[in-house]
Write a structure and sequence with these properties.
Shape: flat
Radius of gyration: 31 Å
CATH class of one domain: Alpha Beta
Number of helices: 20
Largest sheet: 7 strands, mixed
Helix content: 40-55%
């Protein structure tokens, strides 16, 4: 296969921290790779090196000649003053910009250049000329309708400025640029952030079935990685290891590798101990008989080399340090949450048609539906922040609610994590610090303002607050969004053992499958209850039970015989 991007012996340091050292990897034509690593391991920095936005301190990142890379940044780098239509028209090929670049290339062709430089300029000239020809016949409206229609972006918002869009909408527009003019390789940094399940599913299908180029993506969505990736690059301790297959295969192979390395390490240590004992024995004999001196010296040299080899080989870490999550909650009511004939409207828009919902002790309910379907509205009604238009929502006796906010708006940005914990619950500074250390905070982070923390650090802070709250009903809004995969899996294990009830909004399908025992779907005002996890709900939609009253108790058409009987009865009564 043709190599598109190759890194050879790459080292890179930032802020005094060595991120990569002598790292190497290759991205081939048509490959679907996922880059996996803990938060802060350097994944985004590696992408910037691949895109040549950064220069390595040593080593080299090389591209196939003429390679066109599309780089979807974690935060879209769009011009906020442009409209959606203008942004995508430029992606299709801005004639003035292309014409100016063509003029510049023609000037370079008239200059004295070496063979390699001349070949590169000629190749670029041909590429720009082809793009200019395509731009001259580019049908903006037709292309917009095709691309934005697939992404379910409403037509009435095409002339809205980028600055007015939500984070998810900006990500859609950024992605749409690559659909209009597909590059040879796509670098996708958390492409699923802010996307609902339907959009993630569409993106998976497009990457697998419709896009011909190579893909390398950073994602915490294990479900997406499982469906898209054919190769996993694991970035750990500044080194990249390559595993063939998807995420499920990677988990199995990684565990097997670590166990093999641990066994080999034990064999090496046993051999070292034998060698050491032999060297010591020969040394003792040499003191009594000179004929053993040469053998003792040779054995000591072998021992020194073996010690150096053992010390230079890092020991496999079967139990890397992870967040420590363990919930402890007192038993509340059997009926934790009762929604009776609840409806919600905003003006003429119906968010929910009247529905009933019951959460019992031990239920773990996942709320799913397209963005804007009303999931957050339902959560706010449960929390008492918004009233229903009709009906009622009540919590059971002895129910204590713990809330995880997606945007971390429940945290005071001016406070420190240490202060936040001690405001929630009386404790000494050392006790608060110990709780934060269990969430991978160091003393500096614990004393830092929350406004200066990363998204992952704020997520871990909210988790420790949930633990300390002692809540027996957890209401979670996208709890895995800012967590790396190991932290997300630690949270999942704790939630599986949680003794209370859970109501969670999530677009993380792997999380929904592992944690939830019920799925409540909301779409176009209709609420349905599905047994099992996300995959069960998708594969067996016929098992879903309508919670919306109009679907549960439809009005029946009265038979002619029934109308006749009722008419006879009325006549007799009169």
């Amino acid at each position: 296969m043709t190599i598109l991007i190759q890194a050879a012996d790459v080292s890179y340091a930032h802020g005094g921290n060595q991120i990569f050292e002598d790292t190497a990897f290759v991205l081939h034509e048509g490959e679907r790779a996922a880059l996996i690593g803990e938060n802060g391991s350097g994944k985004s920095s590696l992408f910037r090196l691949m895109a040549r936005e950064l220069v390595p301190d040593s080593g080299a990142v090389t591209h196939r000649r003429g390679l066109r890379i599309g780089y979807l940044h974690q935060e879209p780098a769009l011009d906020p003053a442009l409209t959606v239509r203008e942004t995508l028209a430029r992606a299709g090929g801005d004639i003035d910009v292309l014409d100016a670049e063509l003029h510049l290339l023609e000037q370079q062709l008239s200059q004295p250049l070496d063979d390699d430089a001349m070949a590169e300029v000629i190749e670029r000239h041909e590429t720009v000329l082809a793009r200019l020809d395509a731009a001259l016949v580019f049908d903006t409206d037709s292309a917009l309708a095709g691309v934005l229609g697939e992404l379910r972006f409403p037509e009435h918002r095409w002339d809205q400025r980028v600055a007015e869009l939500s984070g998810g909408e900006r990500k859609l527009v950024d992605l749409a640029q690559f659909l209009l003019d597909p590059p040879d390789a796509l670098l996708l940094d958390e492409p699923d952030n802010h996307f609902d399940v339907e959009t993630r599913t569409w993106l998976e299908r497009w990457l697998v079935n419709d896009y011909d180029g190579a893909v390398c993506m950073i994602s915490h969505d294990r479900y997406m990685i499982d469906r898209v990736a054919t190769t996993i690059f694991e970035l750990e301790d500044g080194t990249i290891r390559e595993y063939p297959g998807n995420y499920s295969a990677y988990r199995t192979m990684r565990q097997a590798r670590l166990e093999r390395e641990a066994e080999l390490r034990e064999v090496q240590k046993r051999e070292f101990r034998k060698l050491k004992a032999s060297a010591e024995q020969l040394t003792q004999w040499a003191r009594q008989n000179d004929k053993f001196a040469t053998r003792a010296e040779n054995q000591r040299r072998k021992l020194a080399k073996e010690r150096e080899r053992l010390e230079s080989t890092p020991a496999p870490n079967l139990n890397r340090r992870q967040i420590q999550v363990e919930f402890d909650a007192s038993r509340g009511s059997t009926d934790v949450l009762v929604a009776d004939n609840v409806a919600k409207t905003y003006g003429s828009r119906t968010v929910f048609e009247p529905f009933d919902l019951l959460l019992r002790h031990g239920d773990r309910v996942g709320l799913v539906g397209p963005n804007g379907a009303g999931k957050t509205t339902l959560v706010r009604m449960v929390l008492g922040e918004q009233p229903p238009t009709s009906g009622s929502i009540r919590l059971g006796h002895s129910v204590t609610v713990g809330y995880y906010a997606q945007e971390h708006e429940t945290l005071d940005p001016e406070a420190t994590p240490l202060e936040t914990l001690r405001q929630l619950k009386p404790m000494t500074e050392q006790q608060a610090l110990s709780a934060l250390v269990s969430m991978l905070f160091d003393r500096h982070d614990a004393m830092n303002r929350i406004a200066a923390l990363s998204g992952g650090e704020r997520a871990r802070l909210q988790i420790v607050l949930l633990i300390l709250s002692g809540a027996n009903l957890l209401v979670l809004d996208e709890p895995t969004n800012n967590l790396d995969i190991p932290s997300g899996e630690a949270l999942e294990r704790a939630l599986q053992e949680f003794p209370g009830a859970i109501l969670t909004i999530s677009h993380d399908r792997w999380f929904l499958d592992r944690v939830c025992t019920r799925i409540v779907s909301i779409e176009e005002g209709i609420v349905r209850d599905h047994p099992g996890g996300y995959t069960d709900a998708v594969e067996h939609p016929e098992l879903g039970t309508p919670l919306t009253r109009s679907l549960r108790y439809p009005k029946r058409e009265e038979s002619p015989r029934g109308r006749k009987k009722r008419g006879t009865a009325n006549a007799t009564a009169s």
